[in-house]
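Troubleshooting entry. Yesterday's outputs looked truncated, so today I'm pasting the complete records for two proteins to confirm everything comes through intact. If either block looks cut off, that's the bug. Protein one:
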Amino acid sequence: MLKRLLTVRNLIILVAIVALFVISGLLGLGAYKPSVELAAPVVFHIGPFSVTNAIFCAWLAMLLLIIVSWLATRRMPKNLEAASNTDLVPKGIQNVMETIIEVVYDLVKDIAGPKVSKFFPIVMTIFLFVLVSNWFDVLPGFGTIGKLEHPTEEMATNGYIAKGAILTSQPAASPQEGYVMVSLFRPPSTDLNFTLGLAIISVGLSWYFGIRAQGASFFKQFLDVSAFKKGPMGVVQNFAGLLEFVGQFTRIISFSFRLFGNIFAGEVLLAVMAFLIPYIASLPFYGLEVFVGFIQAVVFMMLTLVFFVTATMGHGSEEHQ
C-alpha cells in the first residue's frame, strides 16, 4: 500500500512539473530565442582582468577535478606496508577513478612504451580537463542562468529582448530599450581561446620532449644543411622538412577548430532543438552531445600522445637503419 502511494505521489509530482513547463511555454514566460555568440561575453571583472563565462567555467572544471581527486585519494593508506588488506581495496569514487586511470594508462603504454611515465600524467590531465569542459554543455542551467543587461545595437536588432519579466521576440527600438540575457555559464570548449591555448600547449610540449630526447638533431627534420650534398634528393628532403615545419603550425589550427567546432556546433544544436521541440523531444540530442564530448576528449588526448611519441623519435639515417 505504501509503495503504491509513493508511486502515485511521484507520478503526480512529475505531471505537475511537466504541466508547469507546458503552461509557462504557452504563456511565453521565460521563452526566448537562443542567442549564441562566438565571442564569450564578460560576466565580471577582477581588477583590470575581464572574466568571461568560458573562463569562469574553466575554473569550475579545474575546481571540480581537484575536489574529485581529493575525494578519490583521501582514504588511501600512506603506509602500504602497515595497511591491511581491507584498506588496500578501493571503494566508491576511488574505485571509479582507479578504473578510469588504469584503462587510459594501459592505452598510453601500448603506444608510448617505456616513455609512458613521462607522457601519461600530461595526456591524462588533458583528457579529464577536456572531457569535463565538454560535458558542461549538457548540465542544467548552462545557457539559461545569467544576468540581464542593456543590449548593444547589434543585440537589439538581432536578439530577443526582455521587457519586464517576459522575453519577447520583438527587436528593441533602440539599444537601451529592453534587456538581453548574458549567460553566466558557457562550456569552455565552445570558446576558441580555450581550444587554441590547449593546442599550443600540446604542440609546444611535443617540441619540448623532442628537443630533450634528440637535442639539436630535432631540428634536422625541418632543415638539414648536410642533405644538400646529396644533390637533388637533398633539396627534396629539405623541401619536405619545410612542409613539416609548416605542418607544426597547422596542427595548432586543426587542434583548435576540431574541438571548438564540434562542441560549439553541439551547443547551437541543443539551443535550437530546445527552442523548436522543447522538453522530451530534445532529450536524445543531449545523449548525442555526451557521446560527442567523450569522443572529442579521446581524440585530443590520442593526437597529443602521438605528437609526443613521434617527436621523440629520430628522423635521421640512424633511426631509419
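Protein two, checking that the full record survives here as well:
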Amino acid sequence: MPHEPVAGASWFAVHTRPRCEKKVERQLRERGIASFLPVVRETHRWSDRFKTLDAPMFPCYLFVRISTAGHARTTVLGVPGVAGFVGVRRAALPIPSSEVEALQRLVASRLDCQPHVFVKTGQRVRILGGCLDGVEGHVVRYDGGDRLVIAVSGIKRAVAVCVQGYDFELLPTDAS
C-alpha cells in the first residue's frame, strides 16, 4: 500500500534471507519503517487440498522508504533476516519512486500477474486509461498475449501483467 511521503526519504531495496520477507516486513513496520512487500496470489496443491496464499513477488527482496540521514539505515540492518541493502560496495542505491509506485498500483489492482525475466531493452510504453493509467513499462510478446513488464532495475527483477485491451502511448526508447 502507498505510504505517506517521508521528507527526504527514498525507496531502497533490501535483500532478505530466503523465506523471511513477511517476517522482516512485519518487524520493519513495528519499528516505524515504511516498507512494501509486493505479493502475488498463488494456488498450491497438496494431495488432499488446494490453498491460495500471498507469496513474495520477488523472493528475498522488499522495499523500504527511509531517509539517508539519521539512524534508519542502521535500524533496517538490525532487523533479523535482513542480509543488507541492494547496491554497489555496501552503498544502498535508491530505487526510483515511479518503479515502486507502479508495483504498488499493480498489487492493489489485483490483476493476474507473474514474475518475468528482467527486460533491459525494448520499447517503453505508458498505459492510457483503466486502473493502470500512467503505469510505464516495456511491452513484450509472451505466450501469445501482450504483456507489460514493470521493471525494478535496482534488483534486476520484473513482473509481467496481461494488458490486452488497454491503450498505450509510446515513449522514447531507453538509451542504455
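Both blocks look complete. Sanity check on protein two: The CA atoms of residues 149 and 160 lie 4 Å apart.
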